[in-house]
Amino acid sequence: MRNLDCQHYTQLQPREPNDPLFAEWEVYRREVPQWVADGKLGWTVVIQDGQIVGLWERAGEALFEAARRYAGKPILVQYIREYYTPVRLSWLAA
User: Fold this and answer.
1) Which of 8, 22, 48, 52 could pair with 75 as two cysteines, CB 3.0-4.6 Å apart?
2) How far apart are alpha carbons 44 and 62 in whole angstroms?
3) Where are the alpha helices (DSSP H) in 1-94?
4) Pairwise CA distance, residues 28 & 9, whole Å
5) Percent of the chain predicted with pLDDT > 70
6) What residue segments make up the domains of the chain, in order of their start?
7) Judging by DSSP bridges, how do beta strands 7-8 and 83-84 pair with one another?
8) pTM, entire model
9) Where do runs of H (alpha helix) occur along 1-75?
């Protein structure tokens, strides 16, 4: 059974324009339908400075490559999924 809070990838919302990963998230939202169609569910994408760095079958390899190339810089490392569950961390706002 799917969690009622889940969002289909076609319903992902934009981030605020002042978000450090705004451009990366917009690239992800634009490209995820094609990646799903190409059978890339479960793969991991790395996006930095609004550009796709690459797609990896293994998340660990994507994380390693992201850290090696872009340590200390804003970067999006995202699993490619059909459904997404929002994460709510109220303690961050305190």
Assistant:
1) 48
2) 6
3) 22-37, 59-70
4) 10
5) 87
6) 7-85
7) antiparallel
8) 0.84
9) 22-37, 59-70
